[in-house]
Amino acid sequence: MAEVASKKPLLSKQDRKLVSDPLNDNNPITVQVLGVCSALAVTSNLANSIVMSVAVILVTAAANVTISSIRNLIPTRVRMIVQLVVIAALVIAVREALQAFAFPVYKELAVYVGLIITNCIVMGRLEAFAMANRPFPALLDGIGNGLGYGVILIAVGFFRELFGAGKLLGYKVIPNVIYDFGYTDNGIMILPIASIFLIGIFIWVQRSFYQDLIDIS
Amino acid sequence: MDLINIFIKAAFVENMVLIYFLGMCSFLAVSKTVKTALGLGAAVVFVLAITAPINWLIREYILVPNDLMFLDLIVYIAVIASMVQVVEMVVEKFSPSLYMALGIFLPLITVNCSILGGTLFMITKEYSLVESTVFGIGSGFGFFLAIIALAAIREKIKYSAVPPALRGLGMAFIITGLMGLAFMSLMGLKL
Fold first, then answer.
1. CA-nearest residue of chain B to A34?
2. Is B168 close to A217, i.e. CB distance below 8 A?
3. N- or C-end of chain A: fewer Cβ atoms within 10 A?
4. Under an 8 A CB cutoff, do A123 and B108 touch?
5. Is residue A31 in a domain?
6. DSSP for residue A125
7. Domain span at residue A151?
8. Is residue A202 part of a domain?
9. What does the pLDDT average to over B115-124?
10. What is the pLDDT of residue A35?
């Protein structure tokens, strides 16, 4: 995030807020409840989480810019279909790129990359932000929300791979000595259910520090 | 008999929400009260039951013969979006109170992954037209049951001493996880 800010010193304070807000106060997963499905499914190891985050950042940013630049031409009655066609075209481009350059990852993620189309983050941000703002803020909003999603995804992937397989990015990190003392990998961490509990715990931790995010209902 | 098996399998053993974790967003967001959960559940059953056979026909008679398979996602999602638009108009016309209660989550059925997931699973499982329809209804019914169960639990848990920071969304996640664990015990069921 610091990288984005330093590359464009012209960013106003408001623009910076667009990128930094979704990282915590308005996080797509833990606060807006968008894009949960894919966060659960693809996080069994760290590498998949990283690929998925990058794909979502690209799609969200590109879709936001596209819709924002044609927002005055879209009739309200058919706007959902227009939005989805734009998203679907972008996702198909990402899918083809993955197939060409990262085939092993593609094989594992094929269904879920397709499901970026129905990742509520993308359409949610289009509805909530891109339809009412100019392309440049929309770009920042897309990047910010993609990053906020990525942070959670990578954290979940980190814990699941660490405790489920004792590895990180495929390398063994928990030394054999510990296994000799009777430590075993936690079987439940491999299942998608683990990520539900992990996100639940993240929400718990986040809201203990930021009390005003607690919803009473 | 086969059809009954497909239905039970889609609704329980391979429950869209609790086993595959698809359609999570609206599942967690709309489950605050049983009443809205009922409305959303019914709408999802309806959309799944209609889009599964329509997408099957389109795939079989338009996409495959004309070698247009690379367009599949766009076509499926367009069918789903138009179906949701129809549902939205019908609900607005015949039940304005439900329309008000569902609010933004009615159009968001379009991006409910369990709908597109239903179409994609139906294709990977190579079902026939009748089987896909039953599969669609079964998956929708599974979603319906799951969201009502979660909503009922959340209504009750309001009166329990949950740690303040875990109240609301955090607890919903953990309940869903526990329900998922319970449903995993059905996985061994051979049908």
1. B25
2. yes
3. C
4. yes
5. no
6. H
7. 38-216
8. yes
9. 84
10. 77
